[in-house]
Amino acid sequence: MDLSLPPKVTDRAFARLAEINETSTAPKALRVAVEGGGCSGFQYDIKLDDPAEDDLVIESSGQRVVVDRVSLPFLENAVIDFSEELIGARFIIENPNATASCGCGTSFSM
Fold first, then answer.
1. What is d(CA 23, CA 18) in angstroms, rounded to the nearest whole number?
2. How much is the pLDDT for 5?
3. Does domain 8-101 have CATH number 2.60.300.12?
4. Which residues form the Core domain (predicted)?
5. In the prediction, which pLDDT does 1 show?
6. Where are the alpha helices (DSSP H) in the chain?
7. Which of 9, 13, 94, 107 sits CB 3.0–4.6 Å from 40 for a disulfide?
8. Tell me: the pLDDT tens digits for 51-104?
9. In the chain, what are the domain boundaries?
């Protein structure tokens, strides 16, 4: 799939992924997917995984972030980042396609 504006990944997100993979004997990619559900209609699923053949792979310094073909249209021009605050640390998605989102930031509507 060829998107005009694929998702972007920040240096901070790649750096955190590198820290996670540093202690692993089998480094994984960060998979970002969109699924139906959540309190706003769609929710993000973020996990460590191996890339599939038809995934979009975004790579920097040997670290990979992958997005499956079904999720790509939902993540067009989105920014995948990492946030570390007093209340916790997590990968976050800044999605310009979302018309509304829940308070926790993992659920959205379009």
1. 9
2. 87
3. yes
4. 8-105
5. 44
6. 11-22
7. 107
8. 999 999 999 999 999 999 999 999 999 999 999 988 889 999 998 887 766 555
9. 8-101
